[in-house]
Structure prediction request, 371 residues.
Amino acid sequence: MNKHSFIVCIILILLVGISGCTQNTSNNNGTNNGDTASPTNQNQSNIPTYTGSINCTIPNDLKSNFKIPTTVDCTGSVTNDDPIDVLQWYKQHMTKWTLMQESNSTPPDKPENIMYLQYYKNNEDGVFLFLMDNFAEGKTLIGIVSGPWSSIQEYGFNETSDGGPQSSTNQNGDVDWTNAYTVSDPAEDFWLGGGSPPQVINFPPSDIISINITNDETNLYIKFEMNGIIPTLPLTQGNDIVRILLMDVIMDTDNNPSTGHLMNFNGAELAVEAWFGSPPQAQGTMYTFIHYAFYDPDGEEGVGTWHDATLVNGGEGEPYVTISCPLVDLHLQNEQKVNVILFAEVESDTYHHYARDVINNDQWVGPFTIQ
Ligand SMILES: [Ca+2]
Ligand SMILES: [Ca+2]
Prediction:
């Protein structure tokens, strides 16, 4: 799972996990009042609990994404305070500990979320503190794990060697499109609506020419052919900067318009997406995420956890992208008929819908049939 998927995942989990909370209070020296400290863990009693924070449970899925074993206790809480203030508070109140390392990271496609990490050491003992801003309506999430320093220093993001999330790898594969379901679309036809500029901006990389969908025994394949080369982002356009290019296939997998509401499309249960982007926090690095997600009513715009799919061919530097995903992962079966909503869109610093092209005015088309 890449970091993008991971962040979406933990937001969903923690929105659920925030219920059933109790508020923490601290005495003047900032040490724990005893409500959350384990009486059997002497080190835990030396870790202050942030004043006024509300206890919450850190789910195992989140722990595992920080490489924290499920058997290790992890204290969770949330506060309305800014994470920078919380970090400063801990620096001042972790009086028995030495701050060994401090860092922060932002998933490139979720610039509204920043994760802050602190590592503290006292002889052979350690504390791993992680904060996430802008969580659950602006609250700051606080997670704390204590244990042997040898274990604590191993916790943190699963990162690539350059410290960033991992882009999908181009497989340079071939696909037989002979029996594909094909949708053709005119050039230079763009959609205007919420989040759009006052007039159409002709941005060829988001102008759909055709979409092909097919499958073999194991995989579903989707190819977006565009009217321009998928650019290296960010891309300066006048006084604006283009950051993200998306191509989406939204599916009604049960042929029922009353079930599913993914991305606010009535009937939608599944999205398969090609994501190209470089938000400001990515500092010029271009990321490609090929992924899929199922409908989750608790997710942002009804989107559940993103899972990695495969970049078969094309992408950056090409006027097309081919992506694939195992049929079994998408819960698609032979002879199944699937209606789809198809679109491509571009986000800039100024406009959420800098340029957007849709098939059939964002209405269902198809079905294609799993053969
Ligand atoms: Ca078009
Ligand atoms: Ca449905």
Notes: Residues 3-17 form the longest helix (15 residues). Residues 185-187, 189, 207-208, 357 surround calcium ion (ligand 1) (CB under 6 Å).
